[in-house]
Amino acid sequence: MSDATPRPAATVVVATQARAGLEFLLLQRPADARFGAGAWAFPGGAVDADDARASWTERLPDVGESRACVAALRELFEETGIMPAPLRGIGSDVLAGARRALLAEKTSFSQVAERLGVDFSSTRMAYFARWITPRGAALRFDTRFFLLSLEERPPRVCLTPEHDAAIWTTPSAALRRSSAGRLPMMFPTARTIERLAGFRSVEDAMTSLRAVQVEPAHVRLGVGEGGVTPLAPGDPGYDEVP
Fold first, then answer.
1. CA nearest 144: which of 35, 56, 71, 41?
2. pLDDT tens digits for 86-105?
3. How far is CA 136 from CA 2, 5, 31, 216, 230, in A?
4. 7-215, what's its fold?
5. pLDDT digit string (tens) for 128-142?
6. Nearest of 192, 164, 161, 163 to residue 178 by alpha carbon
């Protein structure tokens, strides 16, 4: 059987500065989800056709990978209700109505942006990683990762049935809970959090990650005494796995 072609996707690490340092948003997928069942992950999903519309050209931050950038922003709005752009008098009821129409597929994200005059060009983002699902998986994704900096934590996160729960956490707290088995997550999510743990602040992370030259990271599955282990480029044994 031939490998499934990885589907273009995007995810976004929504970060704010807290007293304890950088904190970010994680969402928990339902136990019966087709992909990442029960796992905690960043907001995100597949790129769709509307994400490539020419009308986005003047509305985005200069981070490259424009289709994936739009997808990350769209998925964030769909999954949490967070719209990380100046709203200029747009009321919460109007914004909530636009989100309901988007989720019901009665409108597109580009139409929402055009109708409400939403402009993301001043949104602080960095494109910093690209992870590709291992060969042989039934569902494969080629996912671009973005960091998005917010001045303050949004007052609430409004979830859809696509997720069961949401938490704001620091990298160190997330890694402790993951090690204790209380915060299951997919491999790229864990590796991203390990990377974030190296930054003292959101500003440090933004400055560093904006300078990254992104290379695709193809996850491979190694088999050892402990069973199947996902491996990233540079890990011991990675080059020995086809």
1. 71
2. 988 889 999 999 999 999 99
3. 8, 10, 22, 18, 13
4. Nucleoside Triphosphate Pyrophosphohydrolase (3.90.79)
5. 999 999 998 888 999
6. 192
Q: Can you give the chain as a three-state secondary structure string? A: CCCCCCEEEEEEEEEEEECCEEEEEEEECCCCCCCCCCCEECCEEECCHHHHCHHHCCCCCCCCCHHHHHHHHHHHHHHHCCCCCCCCCCCHHHHHHHHHHHHCCCCCHHHHHHHHCCCCCCCEEEEEEEEECCCCCCCCEEEEEEEEECCCCCCCCCCCCCCCEEEEECHHHHHHHHHCCCCCECHHHHHHHHHHCCCCCHHHHHHHHHCCCCCEEECEEEEECCEEEEECCCCCCHHHCC
- Alpha carbon of residue 73 to chain centroid: 9
Q: Which burial class, exposed, middle or buried, applies to 235 when counting CB atoms under 10 A from its CB (0-12, 13-18, 19+)?
A: middle
The per-residue pLDDT for range 212-232, each reduced to its tens digit, is: 999 999 999 998 777 889 999
Q: Domain residues of the chain, as ranges?
A: 7-215
Spatial distance between the Cα atoms of 187 and 192, rounded to a whole number of angstroms: 9
Contact 138, 4 (CB under 8 A): yes
